[in-house]
Fold this sequence. Notes:
The structure holds two protein chains of two kinds. Chain A is mainly α. Chain A has helices at residues 5-30, 47-78, 81-105, 115-129, 132-161. Chain A has one domain (5-36, 46-161). Chain A is built from five helices and no strands. By secondary structure, chain B is α+β, with helices and mostly antiparallel strands. In chain B, a hairpin with a 5-residue loop joins strand 14 (261-263) and strand 15. Classes of the chains: A mainly alpha, B alpha+beta. Chains A and B meet through helix 3, helix 4 and helix 5 of A and helix 2 of B.
Amino acid sequence: MRRPISIYLGVLLILLRTVTTIVTAVNIAFEWKKVDIALDVGTGADAAEISSIVFVVLMVFFGIAVVIDLVVARLIFMGSNRARFVAMILATILVLGSAADFFADGTSFTLENGGLLGLSLDILVLVALSDSDARDFTTSNSNGRRDARRSRRLLRRSSRAA
Amino acid sequence: MSAPLDELEADERDANPDAARQRLGIVRLFDRAFFVFGTIATAWLGYLLVTESFTRGWQNLWFILIFWVVLAYLLLPRIHTLLTVIYVPDYFIGRARTREGLLGDPVNLSLFGSAEQVHAAMVAAGWTRADEVSLTSAWRIVMSTIMRRSYSDAPVSPLYLFGTIQDFTYQQEVAGNPAQRHHVRFWRAPDGWLLPGGIPTQWLAAGTYDRSVGLSLFTLQVTHKIDADTDVERDHIVSTVTAANPAAVVSVIRNFSTGYHAVNGGGDAIATDGDLPQIDLRQVPVASSAGSGAGAGSTS
């Protein structure tokens, strides 16, 4: 089956989200001195040491997010139905999180603070990947591979028998 | 609706068809849940875009355009998809359906013959085959619009009959006017399938004339508006095909769909006398090169 446009769009949107993640990480890295984090760790703690630990943890977190996105995008492009579900579940969690922020805490999503862009990307990923074309592509494709594997196995068995 | 067996994974299909079908059913159930949630999320996005555009004021009117794109190409089609599953019958009613399940162009031709004979007859009658919708053809549409060049094989929008997209489409350009064109979509009828009244057929076709570009009534998308009198286009197809193919035999089923006074998937009015011509192309000779002029045969 030919790759439908919704698969191209879904993968493209996940890659765009990866780009925004990287831009956010780079921004935080450059502005780290100005980032203000309140932690209740008592007075004896070494502020500089904790700061660097938090920084490393944060960067590792961003790194993992980018790697997951890239792997999932790659697998969806190859026709994996499981990867499509992983991406849809992640997008759903992110959208629900944004919705909780919006309805409970009154967080605003505008172009200026970048919230609208991130939220749009999450929703569009969900929309593209839950399209029936995308579903048909990933379900039929994994069947195709399974069928190929099966016929190879049968071929081997028959050649052994001969 | 039970899933066709050939969509299931081969190993499971052989070992345990019931379990395999159940598994596919679960996948579909989750898919539908994500689809519904995606629709709700899109509605929320639409709301956010509207409030954002209001706070931005008149200087940023372009923002309304983004809202329209989300509304027309994401939200409304999805709402229609969810609703038409409920209220539009999923059997043959003489109409093709759009991707969203809305009623589309009327089926107004029936044909007999092999795919090669249909291709040969249409090419001989001066029709050209429309390209499939793909990234390549989308790019060509953009370029031909910008460069003001003609793109005579531009793809047509997908319409569905028997649950499948049209097998192929033929069209005739109207000189110097990209907004107008003749076009006819073809679907192969399932083997042994009969028209209402028990009349056999092999191909069904829907021919309509695009008269202008406008907005769809149901989805607000940019689309071609079709000419209301679909009989004119039907008769045009029959006359061009019979003039170029002496071996074609035409019979007419009178009053097949008398009394269509309806709108198509874009909200255009349709009127017809209800006659269904049947073109028998089984005697049309197929030259070895006839199919190649019409582009590659569909292998999907």
